[in-house]
Amino acid sequence: MKKSFLIILFLAVSNFLAAQIKPWKNGNLRVSSNGHYIQTGDGHPFFWQGDTAWLLFQRLNRDEVKQYFENRKAKGFNVVQCIFYQSYNDSNAYGDSAYVDKDLTKPKHTPGNDPNDKDQYDFWDHADYIADVAEQNGIYLAIAPTWGQLVLRDKQMTKEKAKLFATHLANHFKDKPNIIWVNGGSAKPEVNTDIWETIGSTIKENDPNHLITFHPFGRMQSSTIFNDAKWLDVNMFTSGHRNYSQDNTSRKVGEDSWMYVLEDFAKSPVKPTIDGEPSYESLPQGLHDQTQPYWNAADVRRYAYWSVFAGACGHVYGQNSVRQVYKEGVNKPESGAKITFVKALDDEGAFQMQYVKNLMLSRPYFDRVNDQSLVLDNGEKYDRVLATRGKDYLMAYVYNGRDFTLKMGGISGSKVKAWWFNPKTGKAQVAGTYPNKGTVSFNPPNEKLDGNDWVLVLDDASKKFTAPGLVNK
């Protein structure tokens, strides 16, 4: 009994200490050898679990910055997407602008950085504080240098101006360990392509040690224009905020976020890809019409598991009030935001995003692929079952709790141990042992209903893996 207690105590302490190690302590992030995933410099998996706080630099004061990052750390987020300079009217919570006379070639720095002295503490000092607090909480800042609309509306934007802007920004942040660059900013890749190329290549030239991606306009992909770009490390798509009936594009992808992943992986060179802007929790379907239903926690879970099981290198969550940093009495709510930023931090889906990361990291990581051939009775839309497998395990996500049938033998082992993993709680329950041959039909717990989502996990029984979602640190 005493020996068992000591072992449990040792494991608990080891896991606690491991959790305190910042990911960059294992080296700079880089692309895995198969081109599908992200890893640390020494080869550990890095699952991009992102949150969206686009106006973080503009709207949060120092106390709110600490509150935000501590909250996100507790929920398992390791990346936060934000915009450094969204428009020429930008100022931060203290009324400071980053540039003199709204000129991107003239950064506004003041001597000193004392937060108690308004003549010293400027926009750049506050940006450094934000990056430092994120670092203390083990979180990367995924910084969009600017936004698509600024570039589109600036008739004097030239490649020379963009180069000066990007050079200074890259050099300012390049020595911080927790930076990812997000070129673009809801931009159409085929519009102002030369400007985005200049910003991307300039950042990579001045800061080669940090990853860079491109955030495109809704229902678009960076890979359509920039897949061959040497500065682009990770592809990004934005599956957008429209439901199936609201998709007015010729492609009619609708809510099928998994399709973007498969399209990106069909291109050469293969690069990791991620949904940088899926439907946000507590946002009206279609983005602006408040008479429409609002996306809920079940929807954001579905977007996450669909894209990740298709092969994405992580997932980016968004909550309507958090993404715009809505502070009651300070700024106006956009897109039907109903609750303030602070309350919205604890919206239901925010708690549940960590479970998909934990599930992926609880099994061998880099050999995982999407394999729809193992689902014998697949359906469309919400009846779709997404299957992903490694050499020794298989996972199948079902959104509505319907019965489905799998072809066995796609993984190693003569027998498989089955589990039902609950995306709402992150807990798993044993579901029996089966011969790894022929076909087997599975009946998820509870009734068939949208939002009764489950992940079936099949393990090679001889491997004796831990329960799904239980990560060995």
TrEMBL record:
Q: Tell me which Pfam families the record gives.
A: Apiosidase, Collagen_bind_2
For this entry, the protein name equals: Glycoside hydrolase family 140 protein
Instruction: Name its species.
Output: Pedobacter alpinus
UniProt keywords, alphabetically: Hydrolase, Signal
What residues does the Putative collagen-binding domain cover? 369-459
Q: Taxonomic lineage of this organism? A: Bacteria, Pseudomonadati, Bacteroidota, Sphingobacteriia, Sphingobacteriales
Q: Where is the signal peptide?
A: 1-18
NAD as a keyword of this entry, yes or no, is: no
Name one molecular function that GO assigns to this entry.
hydrolase activity
Residue ranges of domain Apiosidase-like catalytic in the record: 32-366
